[in-house]
């Protein structure tokens, strides 16, 4: 794990790192030492580890809860080189949608493919980040919607360190089998007028989760229009389960 | 409006009253004077104005938010005389369910009938309670699930003083038409394994609400098993919209 830069503002320390070929970022409370809860965040499709939606949430997790937060670029995203295989499939999928195929199953297949790479990558990120003195081996949470849900469901299912997860904007097509192995508390976000994930498919993914405590929050609006008050809820959810 | 008793405990003043033939209860912060938000609560079927589920929520609305809260007995419930017509219909419905008819449409029809009585009753309760010096004409909220949703949807639709409502455990069969006239913010509770309200019918009622801000919270469990953390969310919801 190699740190390449460090900045600090408004009480939040930000460290950029690379772990092997994976570029990542770690946010912690400025000046903090000792073990604390850690949240791994998965970004959306076409986005990256410092996407505004990731950054805004990460800063609040750190500043208001004292958590550590880490995010890394998914293959083919952010500071990572274009991935030949993923790129070819994305191009093919665009052509198939243009030819009239349904979007949701194509997204689902693509996310399942990418997850085979990201699940082991994210594990090594957890291993490395939890070695740091200012993070330590505390309870782990996962936050990810859209692509971050498609990749997050198999990760949360397979990673016993994760004790609570916020997921959403994803459907059962890609993830129902892995969802049925998730037993930790989940807060699950659905956009009622999602133009990318059919409503029934989102509800079916919530339904597939084996968690005894799972809570579905659905709000009007399109895929990208999660209302601001849901972040308040997310903070309380993680505080309840990791704090 | 005639007050028959007054007690006070843990900072919450409780006044029992009758308004015409309607027995009611009013909770306010002990020693409080002046205008404050008012929440009208509708109890469940077979329950009453001081049902434990009503009482626990009302005390928190008063103690933590400084609100006034009022609840009255629905006709045929609590301290009100048995209602011949409602009693006859309830008995008939039991027989029809025993003979194999679906429960949900029968509940829906019954609630629509009762609502024709409770909507005007609840209006007069608001009128009277808002005349009191320690309540005043502040913003009004409505809370009601199950029967309290079936009766609450037409009330919220028709009563312009209501600025925000928590509803749930109800279905579209009874209330879709009235729901389409509701435009205030709604937090809507669904129990994912509700044995009385079919899941699709509950989701359809949420869908029917015309509110620009509406948020669906669904949790595993049966009709009566709303998890405790939803009350925390309800407090924040009312604080956001009435506070």
TrEMBL record, chains A, B:
SUPFAM superfamilies: alpha/beta-Hydrolases. It comes from the Bacteria. Keywords: Hydrolase. InterPro entries: AB_hydrolase_fold, FrsA_esterase. GO terms for molecular function: hydrolase activity. Coiled coil: none annotated. Belongs to the AB hydrolase superfamily. This is Alpha/beta hydrolase. It comes from Streptomyces edwardsiae.
